[in-house]
Amino acid sequence: MYVPSIGRIFMTAESMMFNGPVLIAGLVLFGLAWGFVILKIQGGEAE
After folding, report:
1. Which residues of 5-38 are buried (b: 16+ CB within 10 A; e: fewer)?
2. How far apart are CA 19 and CA 45, in angstroms?
3. Of the candidates 18, 1, 23, 25, which has an alpha carbon nearest to the alpha carbon of residue 9?
4. Which of 13-20's residues contact partners 24+ apart within 8 Å by CB, and which partners?
5. How much is the average pLDDT of 27-35?
6. How many CA atoms does the CB half-sphere of 29 hold within 13 Å?
7. Residue 38: pLDDT band by 50, 70, 90 thresholds?
8. What is the distance, to the nearest Å, from the Cα of residue 4 to the centroid of all Cα atoms in its chain?
9. What residues have CB less than 8 Å from 23, skipping those under 6 apart?
10. Any one cellular component term from GO for this entry (predicted)?
11. Per-residue pLDDT tens for 4-17?
12. Are 19 and 9 in contact (CB under 8 A)?
């Protein structure tokens, strides 16, 4: 059987309400950082 805490996280509505915004914020921050790195690399190669 899976770890109880993991099953509970995906089963309860409260954790979904909490984990949703956290995951979205994490993805946004990761996307901004990744885009900044790519722009830096492309800018360095272009110039």
Report:
1. eeeeeeeeeeeeeeeeeeeeeeeeeeeeeeeeee
2. 39
3. 18
4. none
5. 96
6. 6
7. very high
8. 23
9. none
10. cytochrome b6f complex
11. 565 555 566 777 67
12. yes
